[in-house]
Amino acid sequence: MNRLKDIRFILIFIGLVFLFIFPVLSSDFYLINILSIAFIYAVYAGSWDILSGFTGKENMGHAAFIAIGAYLLGFVSAVYSIQPWLSIPMAAVASALFGIAIGVPTLRLKGPYFALASLAVASIFENLTISYSEFTGGEEGIFGIPFLTPGPTSDYYFMLIFSFISILILFIAGKSNFGLILKSIKSDEDAAKAVGIKTTKYKVTAFALSAMFAGMAGAVMGHFYGYVGPDIVYPLSLNTLIMAVVGGIGGIIPAALGGFFISLLTELLRGLGQWNNLIYTVILMLSILFLPKGAFKTLGEFLKPKNKKNKTPKLRGEENE
């Protein structure tokens, strides 16, 4: 009942209803495709947030996890015509295992060293992609991947449902004791260790969870384009970080909304030509300067219902005084 009184959940519900009926209201396939892509960017930002926003470990190489899912799909598609019902679970398992393999050694690093290590991992992946072009297609990428569904409208609903389920799972994880422990690690890892929390286990689990959803989103995007290449994968390290920070980190939904709306903004500004990057940069700078907590996290705090102060009950006889 309390959530029914929370205007934030009401607005999210209205937004979801609108998105579900949008293809009925509009037959503009361009807008439908742009919204479909925005759903996946929301998952990219949300999956980044469950690690970096909750633990404070800034992942500068999120594209490496996206690449695992996307290129695994590309490799298999070069031999078999793999369908989404199989490729997405494969991407989930492979990306999660990769997250564990990378997380165990790198998460022991503190300060900026983890960020540099994650950036190095993404850079290595990009160089390997170019070097082993006989497997990855090099700069041209891999073509001929089976499309997600038969048409743009069904693609839209597939990606909307995938995005909704992914963000919901990440949100529930963030609101659980698991998320609370991650935030305690971010606040003071030494204090968390002192009370018996196995911080390494929780950080590695968050790393695997982040990698898993990023990899699945990468596989979905590969099916959507029918193509996997460096141009749609490796720029996402910086883009995802910006989207999550502008939306608001440490809450999943604000970060995901940042990914959704900034990807839409990027497409809307595309027609401005050379002014595109300048306007985009100015908007990001203004957001960071005046909304340091993030645009949607600040909005959520503003709309959050205020708790009424509990009045101290009066003792018998005091009401007559």
From TrEMBL:
Topology of this chain in the membrane: Multi-pass membrane protein
Keyword Cell membrane: yes
The organism of origin for this protein: Geotoga petraea
Primary location group: membrane
Transmembrane segments: 7-25, 31-51, 63-82, 88-107, 114-133, 156-174, 206-228, 240-265, 277-296
GO MF annotation: an example: branched-chain amino acid transmembrane transporter activity
Pfam families: BPD_transp_2 (PF02653)
Keyword Membrane: yes
Key words of the record: Cell membrane, Membrane, Transmembrane, Transmembrane helix
Protein name in UniProt: Amino acid/amide ABC transporter membrane protein 2, HAAT family
Cell location: Cell membrane
One GO location term (cellular component): plasma membrane
